[in-house]
From TrEMBL:
<protein>
    <submittedName>
        <fullName>Uncharacterized protein</fullName>
    </submittedName>
</protein>
Length: 311
């Protein structure tokens, strides 16, 4: 007699559940469970009894694949040898994610803008040089960063700077202790010069500072020296400059120490304020170091992480 189980209620077994649904399965009787266990048992037993034959078949299959790969490699190398194919080394592209803070991005952009302005300035200088050289109808090449003018097929002249026939202006030679700085500045005109140029020439000394003003040309433009010439032409007293030039030098050398840092924060103290707006003793915090700048009446020192780098 056949019995249709759909006519009778049979409680299903819960297999698993999710947030959206419940998975059921029909209950298994003892005969089905025994049958499944016997099937697994005899399958494993058959595989164990025929293990040697299975290994032999796997081995022959492996040999067949190796033969195909070997023949393919021989054909491929033959094509490479006959220059029909070319070999290229390929590497996996590694993707690396880096999180960069906005402050660092801002500092990097400022450095890029500064370098871009320097690049544009140098491009303008090159244009001026090439416009001058075009008048002599000679081949010009840039080799190892030097500008070469070919005079003959076998000789050339290296140019560093093109100057006017007559270079007029003042040269300032600044000596501070054992160091010397030199800068040239053309004669300021109009409202930028209210004194007689001839009256500015001479040598002036005070404490560790010596300033010499000469009416001659110098192939150097140190910013502090050119600033001294411009201030003298405006009528600034040489005594005021001698008393404060060490302050300008401290700031210039501080910029040299910090020029490769991305970030810097200035921490001022309660000490006396000087002409640059900073206290006589202040600190500069960078991403890797602490810099202490001390300025006295006629001297200054710079310490990097406690080590004196300038005095």
């Amino acid at each position: 007699m056949k019995v249709n189980i759909s006519d009778f209620f049979v409680e299903n077994t819960i297999v698993s559940t999710t947030e959206q649904d419940v998975v059921y399965d029909l209950p298994r009787d003892k005969v089905q469970e025994v049958w499944d266990k016997l099937s697994v048992y005899y399958t494993e037993k058959s595989q164990e009894e025929n293990r040697s034959e299975i290994l032999v078949e796997d081995f022959y299959r492996l040999l067949a694949h190796a033969k195909v790969e070997n023949e393919t490699a021989v054909e491929a190398f033959g094509l490479v040898k006959r220059k029909v194919l070319s070999c290229y080394e390929a590497s996996d592209a590694k993707e690396q994610k880096v999180n960069i803070k906005r402050v660092i991005l801002g500092d990097v952009m400022n450095i890029l803008k500064q370098r871009m302005s320097e690049l544009l300035e140098n491009i303008e200088k090159e244009k001026q040089i090439y416009s001058r050289l075009s008048m002599i109808n000679a081949d010009v090449k840039i080799v190892d960063g030097s500008l070469r003018v070919c005079t003959t097929p076998f000789s050339f002249v290296t140019l560093e700077q093109i100057l006017d026939d007559k270079n007029e202006g003042l040269t300032c030679i600044l000596k501070y202790k054992s160091r010397e700085y030199k800068g040239h500045c053309a004669y300021p005109k109009g409202k930028f010069c209210i004194v007689d140029i001839a009256s500015l020439e001479g040598t002036f000394k005070r404490h560790n500072v010596e300033i010499s003003i000469k009416n001659e040309f110098a192939d150097s433009k140190h910013p502090i020296c050119t600033a001294i010439i411009k201030e003298l032409c405006k009528g600034t007293s040489i005594d005021l400059i001698l008393n404060n030039v060490h302050v300008l030098l401290s700031r210039w050398h501080l910029d040299e120490v910090c020029k490769n840092t991305l970030r810097k924060f200035i921490v001022q103290t309660d000490a006396k304020k000087l002409i640059d707006g900073f206290s006589s003793v202040f600190y500069v915090l960078t991403d890797v170091s602490v810099i202490k700048v001390s300025r006295s009446e006629c001297d200054f020192s710079i310490r990097l992480n406690g080590v004196e780098v300038f005095n």
